[in-house]
Amino acid sequence: MYVFLMTRHRERIALIEKGADASIFTAKNGKFYPTLKFGMLFVGIALGILLGNWLGREYDFSKGAAYLAMYSSSAVSALS
């Protein structure tokens, strides 16, 4: 994901430096695929719950701290 975003940024900067219009990167029909974004969010939440359960079981963390840490980090990474 990082490589994709950095490459897109570099391409846009190169087009702007050459004086070309960078509007080719914007969606003309306005679709932003909300189903895909929600799906990625829910997959991230599910992975966070699984990792929190594993941390709570294997390393004897308190369950609240393990679930909160994994839930929040996985949900944020899914939305990025």
- How far the N terminus sits from the C terminus, by CA atoms, comes to 8 Å
Task: Return the structural class.
Answer: mainly alpha
Indicate the percent of residues in helices.
over 70%
The fraction of residues in strands falls at under 5%
Give the strand tally: 0
Q: What does the radius of gyration come to?
A: 19 Å
Q: How would you spell out the order of helices and strands?
A: HHH
Shape annotation: elongated
* Domains, number: 2
Unreliable parts:
none
Q: Give a short account of the largest sheet.
A: none
Averaged pLDDT? 75
Number of helices: 3
Protein name: DUF6249 domain-containing protein
Keywords: Membrane, Transmembrane, Transmembrane helix
InterPro entries: DUF6249 (IPR046216)
Domain DUF6249: 2-69
